[in-house]
Amino acid sequence: MRPPPAAAAPASRLNDHLIARSTPSFKKVALPVKIATWNVNSIRQREGHVLSWLERNQPDILLLQEIKCETAAFPAQAFAKLGYQAEAVGQKAYNGVAVLSRVPFEVTQRTLPGLPPDDAQARYIEIRALNTIIGNLYLPNGNSGGEAGYAYKLGWMEHLAQHAASLLAAGEDLILAGDYNVCPTEEDYAPGALPPEDALLRPETRARFRSLLWLGLTDAVRAMRPSGQIYTFWDYQAGAWPRDRGLRIDHALLSSRMAERLIEALPDRMERDQPQPSDHVPVIISFEP
DNA sequence: ATGTCTTCCCGCGGAAGA
């Protein structure tokens, strides 16, 4: 409940500062910057989930993957009502990424630099907000399309590393977040949740993920919790969620200054218990302002 | 490996991708 306006309140030296903090005309107390990433597995199926989650969690920026709709079909108006501006890069049926932000931003990329110009897969959007470059990525799964499909994944990761290197060389503060489709270590998937030859954990996949870390990027979730089972995805099949047979494949990598500001980074596990959930849950990262 | 979900279409069920 909002306290009465300052003018109507009895003058009290003791609680003046409390009134000031909660009165809109005064400058807000600086709150942590809250950024989240979420593979929603179709925004049209999950619009209600996202709206409800935004209201409950109040992130400054939410990065979405697998919106599975064309750019023009993204339901931007629904999010505008909650104060979030939307920018989407979509395609028919598959893939697709979008940014929702309640802070001002500009789009800096709509595709991953370095990919062939005829690459039509909607997997990357990047913005500048809060003096930070924020890349939202949906990395190829790599299990379909045979060896060519897997080679596409590896190539994509190499272009991502090159792009990250050039941003860091330019001195940018950087967050690269999204669905990486990579289990970085043996701790990052439940025993039996994946066959040993799966593209999410092949050695070549992990080597390319490590090459991102070697640029000086920090895995936000592991910076807060260096070991232990932490998952962000549970397959719809075979009772993966009730058995907690999950994967940690949604990540946020941070440049050094962002890592210094890191307060917390954690998946919102309970979102997986919603009716008709996405198979991924949001990962929330908080920074000192 | 598959007990599911989402999309598309030449649909009225099945393929493909995850």
From TrEMBL:
Probably binds two magnesium or manganese ions per subunit. The record marks H280 as: Interaction with DNA substrate. Residues 36-280 form the Endonuclease/exonuclease/phosphatase domain. It comes from the Bacteria. The keyword Glycosyltransferase does not apply. GO terms for biological process: DNA repair. The record marks D250 as: Important for catalytic activity. Mg(2+) binds at N39, E66, D179, N181, D279, H280. Its cofactor is Mg(2+); Mn(2+). The active site is at Y138, D179, H280. Pfam families: Exo_endo_phos. GO terms for molecular function: DNA binding; double-stranded DNA 3'-5' DNA exonuclease activity; endonuclease activity; metal ion binding. Its EC number is 3.1.11.2. The record marks N181 as: Transition state stabilizer. InterPro entries: AP_endonuc_1, AP_endonuclease_F1_BS, Endo/exonu/phosph_ase_sf, Endo/exonuclease/phosphatase, ExoIII-like. Keywords: Hydrolase, Magnesium, Manganese, Metal-binding. Belongs to the DNA repair enzymes AP/ExoA family. NCBIfam families: exoDNase_III, xth. This is Exodeoxyribonuclease III. It comes from Granulibacter bethesdensis (strain ATCC BAA-1260 / CGDNIH1).
